[in-house]
Amino acid sequence: MKTQRTRLALLLVMVLALTGVLSACGGGSKQADDGKVTISFLHWRGEDTQTFQKIIDAFEQKNPNIVVDMQTLTSDQYQTTAQAKLTDGSVGDVFASFPGAQFAALAKAGLFTDLTGESFLKNYNANLIEAGSQDGKQWAVPYQLVYNMPIYNKALFEKYGLTPPKDWEGFLKVCQTLKDNGIIPIAFAGGDIGPGQFMNTMVMNNEPSEDIFTKVEAGQAKLTDEFWVKTLTQFKELNDKGFFQPNSLGTKDPAAGALFIQGKAAMLASGSYQLSQNVKQNPELQQGLLAPITVSADQAKYEGVHTSTFMLAVNSRSKHPEEAKKFVEFLSQPDIAAQYANETGQNVTLKDIKYDSKELNIAQEWADKKTVFQPRYTIVNAENQKAVTNSIQAVLGGATPEQAAQDAQAIIDQQIGR
Amino acid sequence: MINRKLLWLFMLPGILLYTGLFVYPALSGLFYSFTNWDGVSPSYDFVGIANYKDSFDSITFRKAFVNNIKFMVVVVVLQTVISLVLALVLAKNSRTHVVFRALYFFPAILSSVSVGLIWSFIYDPSIGLLNMSLQSAGLDSLMGSWTGDAKIALYAIAFVQIWAHAGQMMIIFIAGLHAIPGELMEAARIDGASRLQIFGKITWPLLAPSAAIVISYTTIQSFKAFDLIFVMTDGGPNYATEILTTYIYHLAFSNYSFGLASAGSMIFLVLLGILTFFQFRALRQEGARG
Known about the structure:
The structure holds two protein chains of two kinds.
Chain A: H1 2-24, E1 30-31, E2 37-43, H2 49-62, E3 66-72, H3 75-87, E4 94-97, H4 101-108, E5 133-134, E6 137-138, E7 141-147, E8 151-153, H5 154-159, H6 168-180, E9 184-187, H7 193-203, H8 212-218, H9 226-240, H10 253-261, E10 265-268, H11 275-281, E11 287-289, E12 304-314, H12 321-331, H13 334-344, E13 347-348, H14 358-364, E14 371-373, H15 382-396, H16 401-417
Parallel strand pairs in A: 2-3, 2-4, 9-10, 12-14
Antiparallel strand pairs in A: 1-2, 4-12, 5-6, 7-12, 7-13, 8-10, 8-11
Chain B: H1 4-32, H2 50-57, H3 59-89, H4 95-105, H5 112-123, H6 129-136, H7 153-178, H8 182-190, H9 195-223, H10 227-232, H11 244-254, H12 258-289
Helix pairs in contact in B: 1-12, 2-12, 3-7, 3-9, 3-11, 4-7, 7-9, 8-9, 9-12, 11-12
Keywords (chain A): Signal, Transport
InterPro entries (chain A): Bact_solute-bd_prot1, SBP
Protein name (chain A): ABC transporter substrate-binding protein
């Protein structure tokens, strides 16, 4: 009997211990006994944690009653698990979100606190934070600014007497000259980010509209329309003429980057986020940003593409919304944003920021130019996004532009029908 | 006589854990498959069997299913044959054989993500080891875009899957070979049987239980493949390596179509169940004959 009791007691201890372990997995915002409030800051920029920690330390010094607990997930994980964590309000009093599909889903779920009218919004460039607004309300504030345009090697361009072209004929000539001199014109990561990044500048003037893909998703325009077939045809032309490196569909981002950094390729189909990374690996590199203009110079409406991302938001289920807002306000101070930008090598969406590196200033030069928000991110359904970028891969793999457009449209039609 | 109540009490933590971690998620997956839940919103509507209908109608789902079957057949056939050959060659317990066995087994202890990353670099058409080796050997015509060519990408990944797991299956075959009584072989040899005859009449029939394990394990493993494809191609180029698991993942976590993804998971579960059932039945019969 005694043994039985001992076993029972052991069992209870085990169950209690397990319950304890599980409950310890919770956490998040809480009011501590000492009157301090802990808010949680959830994001995916693991590479920025050191800088953010310095900013948090400064914030905590100014606000001794608020403690900020930072948690980071990888960007893949962020796509998969962040929403579940945010839904119960246990973590992410302040959280970051991607524009496009994730923003749309989180907005639909009502996870954003309305920030419309907050005084700190004045610090931002109004055009660059539109990605965080919906139905006239500012739900999130995009913090980072990226120009999704090919990076080019200035020294190589100078060597062959080339300048960024103003029209499609000019772009093809530049590519041909580079190829004739044994240089790969465009390093293209066709196996991962290449089609998604390069399509932005390729399509921006073929259909100079901010909402063409919104229309495609609404069934009011089709990928089989001229703008997309023309874009695919131009992709095919670049591929057929050998302006991408051989077997570009099997190339991933690091390999394409290596071709550019080593000076084997003159352009890299990526974006401004890659500038500081490139120069770290080759300090001699002279870089600039350019966009292929796919039409004649007089028809070109846009000079480039921008994306504002890393959208800061206050969780509507936060138990400490005021404290969370205070932290977003702190991040929105120009001196703090400048610290973030200069230490992490990321441009920001705030006005009048002083950048202290050449690479950040390269991107900053584009602030006054006519750029359009990244067309790919205006596609809010990820299946549609994939169908669009896959049609580029199909063309590079040998399909005709018409067939590739038709196949992709068939998938979009199914999504519309759902 | 053990007290039955006490027995149940001791099983309780296990049952609770199993229910919480396996039964409950499976049942909630079934539940959500009848809803239009996006995985985030607090609310959702019941949509009946619409998600199942949409899945079967989906062009991407059908492509993924066909790719799944191709991938599975290639991996099961080649992995079984290769691991069997490796086992027959390395069955002796000599030092050299043990070293080679360890070498072939080694990929099995690497994580799939590491394997995927390593092979992504090997396959890279510009800076990858495979094309560079082919070029150095003067075999330029064989150089290719291994994961970028829609016609071969799936098979390039199947090769990696086999590379990673053939050694593991070899160990199962070696265990089976060691269980065959030496006298049988000895008797056959004395009777003048050739190597091929010994393999056909003795070794293979007695290896049937091991083969059953290898084939069924490989079938399930290859049908459920995810990590390698996710890391190496993420289903591309142009859906050439999209399989059901990556399709379900993309639906749930990129497209926020949790209900539809749940329906896809349920269909996947049923397909895998059917496959496993028929395979076990066939293999049991084979085992009984053996």
